[in-house]
Write a structure and sequence with these properties.
66 residues, mainly alpha
Length: 66
């Protein structure tokens, strides 16, 4: 699998197909989109970012209610 990935990366380079500004945003989006629409995910990600909650340090400390 690594060989295939390496060959595709060499041929096409980074594709930037996932609309995320950070690793945290990409991972949260990937998890959320499994259970809801992308439209809803973008709203949640925007709210998390606005609240300052889109970092691993903060996410780890959030309660279930938050």
């Amino acid at each position: 699998m690594d060989t295939l990935f390496t060959a595709l990366m060499a041929a096409y380079g980074p594709q930037h197909w996932w609309p995320a500004r950070s690793v945290e945003e990409m991972m949260v989006g990937a998890i959320l989109v499994q259970n809801t629409s992308w439209t809803q995910v973008t709203k949640v990600i925007a709210q998390l970012a606005a609240d300052g909650w889109l970092t691993w340090a903060v996410i780890r400390q959030l309660t279930d209610e938050q």
